[in-house]
Amino acid sequence: MNIIQNKRRFKLIGLLISFLMIISLMYAFYLAPSSAGSVVYGVDVSHWQGTINWNSVYSAGYRFAFVKASEGVSYQDPNFVTNMANAKAAGLYVGAYHFARPDNNAPETEADHFVDVAGSYIKNGYLRPVLDLETGTSLGWSALSDWANRWLQRVQALTGVEPIIYVNSYYANHLASYLASYDLWIAHYTTASQPNTGIWSTWAFWQYTDSGSVPGISGNVDLNKFNGDLTTLATNFVIGGSGNGSSTYTHYLVFEVTASTLNVRTGPGTSYSKVGTVSSGQRYVAVETASSGSLTWYKFWYDGQLRWVAATGYTKVVPWSNVIKVTASTLNVRSGPSTGYSIIGQVHKDEMYVKHGSYGNWFKIYFKGRSYAWVYSSYTQSQSQPGNNYFVFEVTATNLNVRTGPSTSYSKVGQIHNGQKYVVIDVVSSGSLTWYKFWYDGQARWCAATGYTKVVTWSNVFEVTATNLNVRSGPSTAYSIIGTIHNGEMYVKYGTSGSWYHFWYAGRTDAWSHSGYVRDV
Fold first, then answer.
1. Going along 229-386, which residue ranges are E strands?
2. I want to staple 56 with a disulfide (CB 3.0 to 4.6 A). Which of 105, 215, 399, 517 is the partner?
3. Rounded distance, CA 423 to CA 418, Å?
4. 174 and 260, same structural domain?
5. Do 81 and 167 belong together in one domain?
6. Surface-to-core class of residue 412, CB atoms within 10 Å of its CB (0-12 exposed, 13-18 middle, 19+ buried)
7. Of 456, 478, 507, at which residue does a domain stop?
8. DSSP code string of 146-173
């Protein structure tokens, strides 16, 4: 009897120990951030969390927060501004999210409302904005995917910043695959080591519970982890690349169609649906570039929405001129210069188009491939070229002369070569040629663009932060100095060795500079 009782006693003790271990593991996984390793934890909040002591949140180990800004077309979270200010002051990386109501509203209208509410926080030092997609399945998955895509495109067009999309695993398995081009914040409450991300191959943020407990926050709160370390978070998800208020760079440019006709598609590839054409000589404002196979694609405003055309071989970049920006929330486009003409479409606030004529108070624009589209000028604003409007080009000629000015009458100072990439800082026309201004040998130089270059996706660009930075022939101070670059200049790197960046400099492929005196942009 005593032996049996002892066995029962030991069994009960073992069960108690196992139970306590499970509780401890659950606490570690669901309630508290890790104090070791490189995992970065964060929270997402709204007014439901009441007044938050953000200093306590930071002290508990949390390093980022997403804050509800808006919902639908009129709601603003009453605690949004306070939460944003106090979370940032406490030292967290903080960003805004919008709760979508696709069943009730147009995506452009909701996007405009979100930017009206949160626009002042979609800038350097803040996390990229988020679309919170939890409703709308009554539309059907195809229509809901299109709704989300249009919202994401609209916010990016208005702010110059690519948003993040938040969905749960069920949505992630049913939305259209083209949405996987956006970074994912996944909601999946599971004990598995990784969430189910559906059409996405990976995740950026993982909301792993909605019942966390955090010092400084009353009641339950959503807990999240970032898929990387703090440096990666600051580099890839904080606007400006480092959260230190440094400059951002928009990549808008004006392109002219050189093909007789050019297909317009819903995405950057020939697999996307064709929705129309543009014609030779027409000019549009590109807001983004993307690569697909051997082609570069331009994203531009076409029919009141963002569409795509293949750029390589079919377009040329031209100087920024005659660009207008829509200032009304919605503006009718008409077939002639008065309200007596029929409405053929609509454009929206902050979209930009190139005008090619005027009549009285009406501007003639290229719209949906048409050259007889008109808008009332009082609801537009002439748009000077955005500051820091830089883009990257790649040399397609075997060798291309570099000159001191934008024409063949200027002195030749060197050559750049096929496959090399540089950052354009200005565009001018001279005769039949377009010329690009770029950093070449620590100075601004020029090359002929037309027929000798192509615009490519902005990537691997770094900006010099030192007043003067030596350029060496190899990745250490033991190598000879071959030149000097300066604060604010930007170059394209194509390799690294330890703490050194390998880049194209003055047409050379053996140029290196120390990464401690530059920043990625």
1. 253-257, 261-265, 274-279, 283-292, 295-301, 306-310, 315-318, 323-326, 330-334, 343-348, 352-359, 362-367, 370-376, 380-382
2. 215
3. 15
4. no
5. yes
6. exposed
7. 456
8. HHHHHHHHHHHHHHS---EEEEEHHHHT
Asked whether residue 21 carries a pLDDT value surpassing 80, the answer given is no
Q: Is residue 175 part of a domain?
A: yes
pLDDT, position 23: 43
Q: What is the domain-level CATH number for residue 168?
A: 3.20.20.80
Residue 192, classified by CB atoms within 10 Å of its CB into exposed (0-12), middle (13-18) or buried (19+), is exposed
Q: What one-letter code names the amino acid at 23?
A: I
Residues 42 and 185 in one domain: yes
Helix, strand, coil share (%) of the chain residues, nearest 5: 20, 40, 40
pLDDT of residue 9 exceeding 60, the answer is no
Residues 62 and 196 both lie in one domain:
yes
Judge if 89 and 231 occupy the same domain.
Answer: yes
CA atoms 27, 33, 39, 44: torsion sign: positive
> Which domain range does residue 86 map to?
37-236
pLDDT digits (tens, 9 = 90+) for 64-87: 999 999 999 999 999 999 999 999
pLDDT, one tens digit per residue, over 217-250 is 999 999 999 998 887 888 889 887 643 334 456 7
CATH label of the domain that carries residue 476 = 2.30.30.40
Catalytic annotation present for 103: no
Q: Are 256 and 282 in contact (CB under 8 A)?
A: yes
Based on the fold, state whether residues 121 and 82 are members of the same structural domain: yes
Among the listed residues 44, 71, 146, 288, the single catalytic one is 44
Q: Tell me, what's the pLDDT at 317?
A: 94
Domain tally for the chain? Answer: 4
AA letter at 24? S
Of 456, 480, 496, the domain-final residue: 456
> Annotated catalytic, 116?
no
pLDDT of residue 229: 85
The pLDDT assigned to 431 comes to 81
Q: Which pLDDT score is estimated for 359?
A: 96
Residues 395 and 512 in one domain: no
Per the residue annotation, which of 71, 132, 146, 222 is the catalytic one?
Answer: 132
pLDDT band with cut points at 50, 70 and 90 for residue 123: confident
Q: Is residue 23 in some structural domain?
A: no
At 281 the pLDDT is 94
Tokens 């982890």 belong to residue:
225
Residue 241 lies inside a defined structural domain of this protein: no
Residue 20 lies in a domain: no
Question: Are 336 and 470 found together in one domain?
Answer: no
4 — pLDDT class (breaks 50, 70, 90)? very low
